[in-house]
Amino acid sequence: MAINFLTFDSPAAAAAALARDVAAALQRACRERECASLVVSGGRSPIAFFNELAKQQLPWGQVGVTLADERWVAPDSVDSNERLVRSELLQHNAKAARFLPLKALGDNPAVCLSERWQALESMAQPFDFVVLGMGDDAHTASLFPGATGLTDAIDTALAPALVAMTPLVAPYERISFNLSALLHSKQMALLLQGAAKRAVYERALTSIDMLSTPISGVLQQNSVPVSVYYAA
Q1: Could you tell me how far CA 31 lies from the centroid of its own chain?
Q2: Is residue 213 within 8 Å of residue 143, measured between CB atoms?
Q3: I need a labelling partner for 228 at 20 to 30 A (CA). Which of 15, 34, 48, 108 fits?
Q4: What would the pLDDT profile of 158-178 be if each residue is shown by its tens digit?
């Protein structure tokens, strides 16, 4: 399946285009089944996208939102993806959306995987839109190269689920969608910026070692359409 690679003059233009396309998909889903589901990633890159999407005119009360991954920190921590989503996306019109967090009260993510996945089963599935980022090390969600359990996490023969991940170099234990869960979607988008990320992306397109470039599992599959929103 060919990747739809879209190039923009600025990160702001890429964010605005992605927000319009996600809004259109959610609007369509709300018309067709009276509910919609959106999976997003954290970090700095999606903030402009979140701000643009929050202003879109949608039946937000019919939209469920969750995260592709989360650091195992308190929801009010500056490092929490939940905190980011609540402050940057669930504002303006999007305040009416239903947010399902990944962080729970357990001491570590491993003890909460089943309970949190069961909570996500209340969302419309397949997910209508999954928006991902990519690190300089070719990780996506919290599927980090070299992490314990990565082999199973990227095995698409396994059912969609949440997995516990501990990166080798990045801080915090994580809870993350496995690759099957990311691909349990109707559309996917990858938001990229800069020449360095473009080079990682180009390498991942042809990499035969998915353990070194986990994003390859998204880019090289043939079941879900992927669009890349790239700003130089």
Answers
A1: 23
A2: no
A3: 34
A4: 999 999 999 998 889 999 999
Average pLDDT (70-85) is: 96
d(CA 104, CA 73): 10
How many CB atoms sit inside 10 A of residue 207's CB?
18
Cis peptide bond prior to 11, omega within 30° of 0: no
Cα distances from 178 to residues 16, 59, 141, 165, 195, in angstroms, run 28, 29, 9, 10, 28
For residues 109 and 17, give the distance between their C-alpha atoms in angstroms, rounded to a whole number. 34
Strands 4-8 and 36-40: unpaired
Q: What is the pTM of this model?
A: 0.96
Three-state DSSP at 3 gives coil
CB 49 within 8 A of CB 19: yes
Joined tokens for residue 74:
């308190």
Phi, psi of 28 (to 5 degrees): -65, -45
What span, in angstroms and rounded, lies between the C-alpha atoms of 130 and 187? Answer: 6
Q: How many residues comprise the chain?
A: 232
Distance, CA of 70 to CA of 91 (rounded, Å): 20
